[in-house]
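re: ur msg from earlier - yeah i can do the cobalamin complex, just paste it... oh wait u already did. ok heres what im feeding in:
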Amino acid sequence: MSTLNELQSSVIDGNKPAVEQLVTKALGEGLPPQKILDEGLIRAMDEVGVRFENGDFFVPEMLIAARAMQAGLAILKPQLVEGGIEAKGRVAIGTIKGDLHDIGKNLVAMMLEGAGFEVIDLGTDVTPEKFVEAVKEKKANLVGISALLTTTMSNMASVVKALEQAGVRSHVKVMVGGAPVTDAFALQIGADGYAPDASRAVALAKSLV
Ligand code: B12
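and the outut:
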């Protein structure tokens, strides 16, 4: 079995020590960090999602797999970030109200930071009011909203509305993402852009500011 296949299985099994060891091994074999992320860690989480949907996995298994993935991500972090120097803008990023998924949001935040953006991480279950506050008080010029649940993704529209009502919509660009989010949805709710993954989120952020 290749190192990446072993890595996938270990994430799915939630075997954190094995994930740490295999990410280190993959780096030692000279595999590109982005490939380790995409084909090892993220692909494994997709499989975890499929097993959950089929009723083979329950929330505890998803949680343990997520912890194992995060341990692997921590090792990859220094290799993934570009190490930009000049501040390109200030991004307030968070997972939308009602949603606790934060792996993708953290990955986007990490890559933005590495690309030279100042990142204000608002965490998970973030209300529209908190996004407005970050724009008004912390002077963020970019807002990033993550959503993983179809049931709560409509709350993203409330953030755009709240920014309008607070009179600050013209001061910021809004970008959205997360597995159920699409370009069409972004357009529909009046966001300025959508990106399907963390590296394209960085490219989008650069184009917006
Ligand atoms: C891990 C996981 C969990 C963990 C989360 C741990 C954590 N700290 O995040 C736990 C166990 C807590 C969890 C709970 C639940 N989960 Co869950 N979970 C997942 C799982 C398996 C992986 C998500 C993940 O981390 N993916 C890896 C990351 C890297 O990918 P990503 O998040 O998509 O992010 C990338 C892009 O989307 C993009 N991106 C993300 N955010 C942003 C933001 C911006 C601005 C931009 C530009 C881009 C961007 O870039 C990222 C990096 O490339 C998914 C299945 C899946 N394949 O998505 C289900 C999934 C999302 N969960 C699901 C469900 C149903 C739930 C629960 C409701 C289960 C329950 N019955 O309790 C709860 C909800 C709790 C809540 N209120 O939020 C469903 C959602 C179904 C739906 N259509 O709504 C899924 C799809 C599983 C399934 N197939 O059924 N879950």
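cool cool. The beta strands are 90-96, 118-126, 142-146, 173-177, 193-194. ping me if u need the other ligands too
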